[in-house]
Amino acid sequence: MSVLQALDIGLGFLVFAVAAWTVFARGAFAATVGYVVYGLLLSLVWIRLFAVDVALTEAAIGSGVTGVLLIGAAARLRGSETAADEKSLSGLPRVFAAGLSLLVAMALAGVVLLFPDEGPSLAPQSMQHLPETGLGNPVTAVLIAYRAFDTMLEKVVLVLAVVGVWSLAADPHWGGAPGEARAERPEPTLAFLAQVLAPLGILVGIHIFWVGADEPGGAFQGGAILAAMWIIVMMARLTEAPSTSAFWLRLALIAGPLVFLIAGVGGAVFAGSFFAYPPGFAKPVILFIEAFMVLSIAVNLPMMVAGPPRREPKR
Amino acid sequence: MSLVDLFSVVAIGAGVFFFLAGTVGLLRFPDTLSRLHALTKADNLGLGLIALGLLPRAESTLGAFKLVAIWALVQLAGATTAQLVGRAVRRKGTAA
Q1: Are residues A71 and A149 in the same domain?
Q2: pLDDT digits (tens, 9 = 90+) for A170-192
Q3: Which B positions 59-78 lie with beta carbon below 8 A of chain A?
Q4: In whole angstroms, what is the distance from residue A57 CA to residue A224 CA?
Q5: What's phi and psi for A12, nearest 5 deg?
Q6: Is B76 in Cβ contact with A196 (below 8 Å)?
Q7: Most buried residue, A48, A68, A77, A307, by CB count within 10 Å?
Q8: Looking at the complex, does the CB of residue B83 fall below 8 Å from at least one CB of chain A?
């Protein structure tokens, strides 16, 4: 057994241990911390599987943005948590739940063991048609060309999530701004971090999006980094979230799926089928769509974190 | 083993030592502030030495620059988090 194999097995055990710790952790905050660590370990696993694109997404979305969302939820639930603990399952329902979980786990394990030794793969076809897209990164080709419709719908899901968050607003706050107002004197440490990190992060985010055409990276990862920068600046209270009734904000939220859909319909007219790209122009069209998706992701994620509107709209 | 390899081994080995010492401190020190103290040493010196050891192995100048940038960003994040945790402890009034 080589050193790398030993490290891989160690990493696998660590993932299991942190997952178990997260499940058994007492309190929502501790469980969230466990979940974030679990996500970071998982992105290391993806790197070891040479799936750098997935690793980037796991670190940015799975661990990063979801972690912030969960910490926010945990902070809001802090008061009510002990009350919920007392109402936890007991007796027969508990045994039933444990049995059901065990059954699902065993079924999943069984399926994994029954996998054929050589799994079915579309990788050769994916690589074969890569030149037609003008892209160098097969993952981006899968996301924006081969299964463009799915990716478009994923962006619609983000918009739906923001609509869901906003709809939790109290009646008088509808259309107002979420989150905290801009502070007169922001917390100096956080403000310093936000001021130094945001310009760098914006550069890195745009870079990740741009190299995504040919190397690991892409719209989702780049957009998530840009989103994180906005979240940090809002957390430091250097700026406040915009009013949810602002037209530019709503336009930015839907710009990605909208442009994607228009391009898809355009494909039906100019290239012969829904979501087809005209030969020779595939790459510019793809990058154009991706740019708007980056914008939408960078606006949707912070709006989810900012939560429902909490201030009355300015009249 | 060339001189460059020797440099890498020594620097990375020293970095790993600081990580180990920082982790032991995190697990063994009695209160939050001293645990933070142990942790920031691992971040700063440990990662710094590992990045230093990897520098001669970078494929290009850009790669080397990225290594230094990662170290600097972790410094920034680590120092900020340490400040924020320290402040939260002080506000609570207990250093437990």
Answers
A1: no
A2: 888 888 888 888 888 888 888 99
A3: 73, 76-77
A4: 8
A5: -60, -45
A6: yes
A7: A68
A8: yes
